[in-house]
Write a structure and sequence with these properties.
Length: about 375
């Protein structure tokens, strides 16, 4: 049976060549995040059990590896909402379906060239490779995001790139024909040549572009939860379990609703919703308001258990200037200009940085677990 080959290489031509050789041999690949510390790396290897590791130009065989099924192409690590390492199994057919649908929606032509500069151990980065290969267009692969290198790539002919909002702010967006934005919620004033995406590792990259499902993608709202179905979704998890219901729908644990114009609006993760005094508060909305305050350089919002309110809204803020941080009263008044008073933070925690994933998503569980209240 085919093997699972772990790729322990930085982004670049060697990584690309290893993927192609593995696929030509009928094997599936599993990219290892180069930033993982030793214990996390070992936990991931123990969970996904590859039969071989390619590192520094050599192949290391591993005992007790578990094979993959014929047609499997990629096992993408994900921790989901639990933090426990697991692998999403995507077939060649699923990757092709994703690449076809996204290329058609973006109007990719022979004149285009993709730039991959997001981590290849995340589906948002790896899927750039498969998009380029399916469309038969030129591909440049970087080992992570570097603003100067991205600018040079655009001058050298790259027309398409996938970015996260934090990276978008560090380049001239006009350099590219289309910028695909994933990860954290995009800025409200995003450039006209950006396309926002909704998706997850299990969906093989984004499946909703600018609020509208890609071709062959079905989206429903069931009890406020987004459920999806389509040919680009995973086959199963690495341990053989399936996340699908009896009718083949994937329940995402994301909550959302349809806008009046037919576009999908994602409210947030089910577990992120803050219920304070019986009122529902979505962190994204509060964060968006707080980012407009001149004393806020970065911010994250989460709910913390409260004996009176059930949960209270807490804002973790990186101040623009450490010598003159915002006060809780300032921030509450600022949020009150945009939202009802119950959405304003009841507590302020000043921090040096916000914990985020490689794609810029706030790790809210880390905030709550490391909660140290400040007086504000």
């Amino acid at each position: 049976m085919p093997d699972l080959v772990a790729i322990d290489l930085p982004g670049g031509q060697a990584f690309v060549d290893t993927v192609r050789r593995s696929w030509d041999a009928g094997n599936a690949v599993f990219p290892i995040d180069q930033r993982l510390p030793g214990p996390a790396r070992q936990a991931l290897l123990a969970a996904l059990r590859p039969s071989a590791i390619v590192a520094s130009g050599s192949i290391h065989r591993r005992r007790h590896g578990i094979p993959v099924d014929d047609g499997d192409a990629l096992v993408m690590p994900t921790s989901g909402s639990t933090g426990t390492p697991k692998g999403v199994v995507l077939t060649h057919d699923a990757l092709h379906a994703s690449a076809r649908a996204t290329s058609q929606r973006l109007g990719v032509t022979d004149a285009d060239q993709w730039l991959a500069c997001l981590p290849l151990a995340h589906i948002g980065g790896f899927s750039v490779l498969t998009k380029a290969w399916w469309a038969g267009v030129a591909l440049t692969v970087h080992d992570g995001f570097d603003a100067a290198a991205v600018t040079r790539a655009a001058h050298d002919g790259a027309t398409l790139v996938s970015l996260v909002p934090a990276a978008l702010n560090r380049i001239d967006p006009a350099l590219f024909r289309v910028i695909v934005l994933g990860g954290s919620r995009p800025p409200a004033d995003r450039p006209s040549n950006t396309v926002t995406t909704y998706g997850m590792t299990e969906t093989g990259s984004g499946i909703v572009y600018d609020g509208r499902p890609l071709d062959d993608v079905e989206v429903r709202i069931v009890d406020s939860e987004i459920v999806v179905r389509g040919p680009m979704l995973l086959r199963c998890y690495r341990d053989g379990t399936s996340p699908f219901d009896a009718e083949g729908w994937l329940h995402t644990s994301d909550l959302g609703h349809w806008l009046a114009d037919g576009r999908l609006h994602v409210d947030g993760r089910r577990g992120d919703l803050i219920i304070t005094g019986g009122e529902n508060v979505w962190p994204d909305a509060v964060e968006a308001a707080l980012r407009g305050h001149p004393a806020v350089a970065d911010v994250a919002v989460a709910g913390v258990a409260d004996p009176m309110w059930g949960q209270r809204v807490v804002a973790w803020v990186v101040p623009t200037t450490a010598a003159a941080p915002p006060s809780l009263t300032d921030l509450r008044n600022h949020v009150g200009e945009h939202h009802p008073a119950f959405m304003a933070p009841k507590e302020l925690v000043l921090v040096a940085s916000i914990p985020r994933t490689a794609l810029g998503k706030v790790v809210r569980s880390a905030l709550a677990n490391d909660h140290e209240p400040s007086s504000g």
